[in-house]
Amino acid sequence: MQSFENALLGRMQGLLGVPDKLVALHEPEFGAEEHALVKDTLDSTFVSSVGKYVDQFESELALFTGARYAVAVANGTAALQVALKLAGVQAGDEVLLPSLTFVASANAVTHAGAVPHFVDSEVCTLGVDALALGEHLASVAELTSQGLRNKATGRRIAAMVPMHAYGHPVDLAGLMDVAGRYGIPIVEDAAESLGSYYQGRHTGTFGKLGTLSFNGNKIITTGGGGAIITDDAEVARHAKHLTTTAKVAHRWEFFHDEVAWNFRLPNLNAALGVAQLHRLPQFLEEKRRLAAAYERVLAGLDGVAFAHEPEGTRSNYWLATMRLLTPDLAQRDRLLATLNDAKFQSRPTWTLLHKLPMYAACPRASLQVAEALEASLINLPSSPKLARTL
Ligand SMILES: *Cc1c(COP(=O)(O)O)cnc(C)c1O
After folding, report:
1. Residue 333 and residue 330: Cα distance in Å, rounded?
2. How buried is 225 (Cβ within 10 angstroms: 0-12 exposed, 13-18 middle, 19+ buried)?
């Protein structure tokens, strides 16, 4: 009898062929415009944090996402760290976030001086479960005149950071309802969801602030980079100021009016970003076509499901994701070994953050669903170019 692993492998080979070299999980792609704009930046000598491509990248990002303002920064982690500060998070506060996310989400919370408070995810969105979050807060927190307080730790719960996992939008309506009831701001970690929409509106534009990443593995890349998006003019101004050493503009004087960061995105990287942004519509169409093909070939295989975009959303399908219907770490790892041995680079989801040594003692809700997802999710090769071979 054919093993489950071989059955899956057969379907992958049927779809993508039998590879003779590694089929990457996700590969960036550059064309003539990337080369031209990077060369133009070099020729101009404006390679650092001042230059026309930073401004152009910011205005095109705002246009694409529908956010009023976009502030380009050094990377997605820095974007989140600054966004948390601008959302009012202070040293000693707690911030709610999923345990099922990339470690950067929790690192940003920590660098903002706060303590991660992990909450559970749901199967249909792979993101924070709003219902479970509401129930958790009803039991562990109380509303006081100083805001929401964790009864067990005595700390203020200052914000929530939902994350749109692999591009699939979270249940924003549910989360906004919980956030509204408890009076806490939402900062959306939209690092993975550029080009994803919830009820027709771009992810990252529902919270007080949203953050994006343009790391090398994301849907578009600037080498390294990120952005803060917001509709609030004052928040945008402050984001720019805080990421630019809080220097007060003057023709020659160095005067800085608060402790700040050098988190600017260099013009060289922004030039790459402008060109990549122009290719984004094509990448989105190709990822969608690839996802549909995966969904089709996996449909006939017992025991697995393809992670389809949640109802009412349009996902960028950044990383194609399959899920074992019965969570089983050993089975997951056998599949990973089979796929990777056959040169289909595949990865499990992140080790849950509350299991990492530095976050093991953080406050947390029941994380039952996240635990099940950890034992059942596998990301499949997702480069846009794969759609061109179908
Ligand atoms: C990539 C990513 C980040 C961080 O972005 P960097 O640009 O790598 O700092 C944050 N959160 C999530 C969920 C990510 O996937």
Report:
1. 5
2. buried
pLDDT at site 100: 98
Backbone angles phi, psi at 167, to 5 degrees: 100, -10
Question: Ligand 1 in contact with 226 (CB < 6 A)?
Answer: yes
Q: How far is CA 388 from CA 170, 252, 384, in A?
A: 29, 53, 8
Q: What single letter denotes the amino acid at residue 103?
A: V
204 lines ligand 1 (CB under 6 A): no
Q: Which residues are 213's β-sheet partners?
A: 226
Please tell me if the CB atom of residue 108 comes closer than 6 angstroms to any atom of ligand 1: no
What is this structure's pTM? 0.97
| 104 pocket-lining for ligand 1 (C-beta < 6 Å) | yes
Centre of ligand 1 from the C-alpha of residue 162, in Å: 13
Tens digits of per-residue pLDDT, 136-165? 999 999 999 999 999 999 999 999 999 999
Which residue's alpha carbon is nearest to atom 10 within ligand 1? Answer: 104
Helix (H) or strand (E) holding 270: helix 267-299
Q: How far is the CA of 80 from the centre of ligand 1 (A)?
A: 9
Does pLDDT of 1 surpass 70?
no
Spatial contact of 83 and 187, defined as CB atoms under 8 Å apart: yes
Q: 76 C-alpha to center of ligand 1: Å?
A: 5
Residue 311 has pLDDT above 80, yes or no: yes
Pocket test for ligand 1, best of 75, 77, 100, 222 (most atoms within 8 A of CB): 77
Angle at 220 between CA 218 and CA 225, to 5 degrees: 75
pLDDT bracket for residue 50 (50, 70, 90) = confident
